Amino acid sequence: MEEKQPNNKTVDVIIPVYKPDDTLKRLLNRLEKQSYPIEKIIVINTEKSYWKDGEFDAIENLEVHHVTKEEFDHGGTRNLGAGYSKADVMVFMTDDAVPADRHLIGALLKGLDQTGEHGEPVVQAYARQLPNPDCALAEQYTRSFNYPDESRVKTMADLPRLGIKTFFASNVCCAYDRRVFLENGGFVKPAIFNEDMIYAGNAVRYRGQAVAYVAEAKVCHSHNYGCKAQFHRNFDLAVSQADHPEVFEGIRSESEGIRLVKNTCSWLAKQKKYWLIPGVMVKSGFKYLGFFMGKRYASLPRWLILKCTMNQSYWNNAFLSDKRT
Q1: pLDDT digits over 165-184, tens only?
Q2: Can you tell me the distance from the alpha carbon of 172 to that of 316, in angstroms, rounded to the nearest whole number?
Q3: Strands 11-18 and 40-46: what pairing?
Q4: What are phi and psi of 85, to 5 degrees?
Q5: Cα 15–chain centre separation
Q6: In angstroms, rounded to a whole number, what is the distance separating the alpha carbons of residues 91 and 109?
Q7: What is the rounded CA–CA span in Å between residue 82 and residue 40?
Q8: Structural domains of the chain, with CATH
Q9: Strands (DSSP E) along the chain, which ranges?
Q10: Which helix (H) or strand (E) covers residue 31, if one does?
């Protein structure tokens, strides 16, 4: 039986795709089986040569658009997808996140229907991420640390207590009110990374809006990143924060990272997996080094930036200031 909200909001799902594989097939198949109806699944595929015509013909409401690798941008490509939607609600997903059950969309819409303690409207509702079966043990704890089993609505009043977590949201699976999204100007572009948190920070900090974490909305999504990948990822994360002081200035991220490391090591000790603790410490060192350098990217030479980033096309396509040349 289909779930219906009292206001019968329409929903589109927007997915940037790169080199589609079997995970995307599972994602699309599970979206088809959602108990809340989806109007359109809008795919923005990077590089047409990677898309196999006929591979996904069975998905009746699928709409595919292509961009080149040079055109891809974390914010701009998602804005492009939003331009193809006429739905009340847009759910952005990544191509490696698979709905855990049939109730993902319905749960996200219920999340958007909430308000903060003082009536702040929720404009962004993101899902809980569960570890994949092959997820490393330490990363399993990271999933539960960032995506606990209790839902919450976050507003500006939470900033003194939650710090940067107030603005935490993830476009791995996140629902947006389309009208408000357009009024807010969509995602920042160009965006090296972190377009979801920048949107959330502006919404909460300057527009009196709220962000909801919806633990009942669940997707399977995790990565077993090595030290090098964590370095690159955290470098880009820090660049995004350095580029947007209007959102992140005065809010320390490092303390939250330290708390995660301490809690992970404590959890591994309780599991009697002591031999995994040194690996967590080493990987955390790479994370911190990447973040430290990314925060200071403006003083780095271009050749070194290109060695540190995981998104070289951003540096080639973004407007280039003196700091990036």
Answers
A1: 999 999 999 999 999 999 99
A2: 25
A3: parallel
A4: -100, 145
A5: 12
A6: 9
A7: 11
A8: 11-220 (3.90.550.10), 227-320 (no CATH)
A9: 11-18, 40-46, 62-67, 89-93, 98-99, 122-130, 152-154, 173-177, 210-220
A10: helix 22-32
| Strands 210-220 and 152-154, sheet pairing | antiparallel
**pTM of the model as a whole:** 0.93
Identity (one letter) of the amino acid at 305?
Answer: I
Query: Can you say how many angstroms the Cα of residue 229 is from the centroid of all Cα atoms in its chain?
Result: 17
**Conformational region of residue 296, where left means phi above 0, alpha means psi within -120 to 50, and beta covers everything else:** alpha
> Which pLDDT tens digit goes with each residue over 269-283?
999 989 999 999 999
Amino acid, res. 146: N
Token reading at 251: 């809010």
The answer to whether the beta carbons of residues 92 and 105 sit under 8 Å apart is no
Is residue 4 predicted with pLDDT exceeding 70?
Answer: no
Cis peptide before 121 (omega within 30 of 0): no
Per-residue confidence (pLDDT) for residue 54, from 0 to 100? 84
